Amino acid sequence: MNNERYERGVQKFKEIKGEKGEEAIARLKELDPDLARYVIEFPFGDVYSRPGLDLRSREIATIAALITLGNAPLQLKVHIRSALNVGVSRREIIEIIIQMAVYAGFPAALNAIRAAKEVFEELDKEENEKRTKITRTNKFIPRLVKINEKSRIRQNKSKRHRRVL
Description:
Blueprint: H1 3-17, H2 21-31, H3 33-47, H4 55-69, H5 73-85, H6 90-104, H7 106-139, H8 149-164
């Protein structure tokens, strides 16, 4: 057992997966600890950690390969999310899918566009939930004086004063 490869793989995995990295590793370990170690050590500890390509380029290549395979929709969704996390834009992901239509065929591209749409919708939903949670949290903060209330009070007093005169 090579702990250096595994630890390097864990760090790279978390870098690519972002906030969800810890959860994904835990889920893999629940399924099978040995398979989890293999998935972390080889792809992420060895291949993804090599010099020569940045993570953005590696994720673009991975998305293209998964589209071409045509039989790994869950992994495609995971890597679309990962690509977004390392700086690939939604528009670039769509362009990768269109490019792969030429080499993998339209059925593979159509399946990939559906996977991308699902990921985009999930991310939008998560973002909206975060915004709603923040808004709800801020909404219930008790305030003695509302923002700009003092300035409104001053304006009203000056208007009343003008009317009286």
